[in-house]
Amino acid sequence: MSVARIAILDFLFYLSTAAFYPYLQLVLRNNGFHHSAVGLILAIGEAASVVIPLVVANLADRTGKKRISVILCTLLSALLFIPVTKSSSVWITLAAMFFCRGLYSCLNPLLDAVATTCLDGDSGRYSIVRTVGTLGYVLACFFFGLSGAIQSDSNATVLRAFIVASAVLGVYCLTLPKIVDTQRISKRVAAGDTPVFKNQDDAQRPRYGAHYEKPLIIFIIATFFLKLGNSAVERLLSSYMTEVMNLGDSFINYIALGSVSEIFLMLIVGRLIQKRGKSPVLFVIIGGFAMIARQMIYALSSSLVAFIIAQLLHGLTFGALHIGSIMFIARNVPKENSSVAMSIYTCIGTSLPNLIGSLLGGAIIENIGYSFMFELYSGFALAGTIILLVSYRNLNVYPSMDKRVVSCIQNSSETSS
Question: Staple partner for 159: which of 85, 100, 145, 216, CB 3.0–4.6 Å?
Answer without folding.
Answer: 85
